[in-house]
Amino acid sequence: MPLPERVAIHCEATGYDPEVAELRQIVAIRIRGNRILTGSALRLWPGCDTGVGEAGDLLRAFIGDRPLVGYFLDFSAAMAERLIGSPLPNERIEVSSLYYDRKIKAASKHAVDLRLDSLVRDLDLPVRPDGAFGVALAAAMAWLRLTQEGR
Amino acid sequence: MPHTASSTDPGAFDFARPPFDLLTADQRATLAGALDVALYPRDAILLTREEPVDALFVVLRGSVQERRGSEVAAVHGPGDRFGLQALYGGGSGGNGAGTRRFIAAEDSVCHLIPRAALDALADDNPAFGAAILGDFAQRMRDLAVERSNREMAALTMARIRQAYLHPPLFVDAAASLRDAALAMKRNRASSVLVRNADGSTGILTGTDLRDLVVLDGRPVTDPVGPLARYDLLTLDRDDLLFNALVLMTRHAVRRVVVTENGAIVGLLGQSDLLAVLSNHSQVIGVQVEQATTPDDLRRASRSIVALIRTLHATGVKVAFIADLVTELNRRIFRKLFELLAPPELLANSCLIVMGSEGRGEQLLKTDQDNGLILRDGFDWPGLTAFAADFTHHLVTFGYPPCPGNIMVSNPDWTRPLAGYKDAIFTWIHRPDEAAQMNLAIFYDAAPVAGDASLLDEAKGYLLSRLQDNQMFFTQFARPTLSFDTPSGLFATLFERRRAEPVDIKKAGIFPIVHGVRALALEKHLAETNTVERIQTLAEMGALDRKLAAELAEAFTILSTIRLKARVDAPDGGGADGGEPDGTGGDLAIDNLVRPETLGKLDHDQFKDCLALVKSFKELIAHHFRLNH
Lengths: 151, 628
Description:
The complex is a heterodimer.
Chain A: E1 5-13, E2 23-32, E3 35-36, E4 42-44, H1 52-63, E5 68-70, H2 73-84, E6 92-94, H3 95-105, H4 116-122, H5 131-147
Parallel strand pairs in A: 1-5, 5-6
Antiparallel strand pairs in A: 1-2, 2-3, 2-4
Helix pairs in contact in A: 3-5
Chain B: H1 25-34, E1 36-40, E2 45-47, E3 55-61, E4 64-68, E5 71-76, E6 81-82, H2 84-88, H3 95-99, E7 100-104, E8 108-114, H4 115-124, H5 126-157, E9 170-172, H6 177-187, E10 191-195, E11 201-205, H7 206-215, E12 234-236, H8 241-251, E13 255-260, E14 263-269, H9 270-277, H10 280-290, H11 294-313, H12 318-340, H13 343-347, E15 349-353, H14 355-359, E16 370-374, H15 383-396, E17 414-416, H16 417-429, H17 433-443, E18 446-450, H18 453-466, H19 470-477, H20 491-497, E19 502-503, H21 504-522, H22 530-540, H23 545-567, E20 592-593, H24 600-623
Parallel strand pairs in B: 9-10, 12-13, 16-17
Antiparallel strand pairs in B: 1-8, 2-7, 3-6, 3-8, 4-5, 4-7, 10-11, 13-14, 15-16, 15-18, 19-20
Helix pairs in contact in B: 1-4, 4-5, 5-11, 8-12, 10-11, 10-12, 11-12, 12-15, 16-17, 16-18, 21-22, 21-23, 21-24, 22-23, 23-24
């Protein structure tokens, strides 16, 4: 039986409003079992190195019906839908809410710091969460750490 | 590529670590772009049999245990890599990989270099490729050594009782061959035991059946009684499995009969022994048997040193090691001879080994002492070339040439029986130092391949020429006293000498070997092994029984100390089992023992042994009138 796959995505855009922001870069990385397939990640600069239509097709094919994983995923997913030109019905997994769920169980009096830098530091992930690739990879790592056995 | 070459990126691949430092900037970028990353929680299994391995693992964070069975064979920390064996060794499903597992000892992160990327880089950058694969070869060697260590430890401890025994399957002597075959089939056995009315028990194997019926055309109705073989090899159920191994190796059989309180309780098969222990020495034996070229043999031969080290390290008795090593060496010689010699040479000659190899006391590969006795009248033009070739191959196998040139390649030692007889005559009647030595080592000769009757005849001639020539024996025995033996009787003297190394061969082993040899020659014994000679001499009454027992023990102890000194010699240490260039892997020959480096127990034993050797030398001097 093939291992289940997911896709971590992240977008870099000119703003945070998916209605108006302009997409600069989108990165999608598959996760297979415990392994993050960074070596075959999809990195697109639509309208720059790839035509917008073509980029949409590539992204749609790359994602398929795999669940999506991301940090601030709704924004990335909305940008991806705009690029593809149709809604993405895929299951969505927001790592910051997984992280929140876990931290809140620890019954700390402090508010949970959901900033990605803090999350990466707290989970001790070997990644620098910069740029679309760094954030997507950080999300993939965070998702693995938060869902692996014994967590 | 945001996650690659920055020094502040905690996920960056460490290119400073060899052999990755061999990569050019472009190649590094290519590799960084091809990397996958994997995160494992503590106790997660990284590599299993089910999962095809398609990448080399390099630890980035945490640590990964490599386990074989329940043992931790290695721990891989940051920068360490693993998975190559599975990647290139064809290991999945094979013997090694089957039981190997990689488990995260803590939360760990690994970089995975896909095989395609690794192959492309190795093609692109030959130095890098060599480093990666060379590293792999070394790792395989280490693993092999490690494996044999573990197996040998098990082997030396294990008793036959612990192995699976096939229940004995008896048939009556009157049963037919067909009955025997039926019984084997029904019980899925490969042999039956044949019980005779007179109480004797024989064995009939499937191979015997095939030979008797298919090849010899015997009717299947023939009774098995007269056809069974009665030279059963038996061992007690409480014997060491190792003894079973030695017995099987020596007799080239695949099963031994196991008894308990004298009654047969089962059969121990070679395959069961292998299944339990899958031990190293048998593997070498099989390698030798299956060799089809001298190169195959060379590889098998190279493994022997590692075997000796392992056996010694696991506390196997020196006598067993000598037995096994002698047997393996002889097999290698025999196989090489059979590979190189044409059939007519095989039929008309006898390959002999002499000296310690002939006595079966070889603990390590020492100088070649071998010769070839040709049948009188046999002539073959290729002989000189063959002899040179034979000796040369043995040298490449790691048996150094004999400094005295007592080797097949020397025409003096490859000659017709009549030539040997002439030489023997000269050795006896015109004894000088060289003649004495030649005679001594020839008396120790044992046949290895070809027609053993040629050696029998030469030795028969030797004994017939001796008569009761007192003068001769006095000369022959004299070297027993050649070297000083520091004696424990003079404690102060000994203590003063303690700081000086003692040549254990000259002071202890040689006097025993040669003194016993002189006594054995005088009594015309056929035995060549020193301990066997001592025992036979005691049985004949030629040696006091108590002294004989002590002498045999001292000989064993001294041999053990000698082996220890060699195995532990600094330049002989390390896990260099068989270097491809053919120079490593051999143990330095060093007969010097530094008493102060011996443990208390060894030291006391050493002292006692030397005292015994001293008194044995006095006995020899008296017996052969060496002081007159």
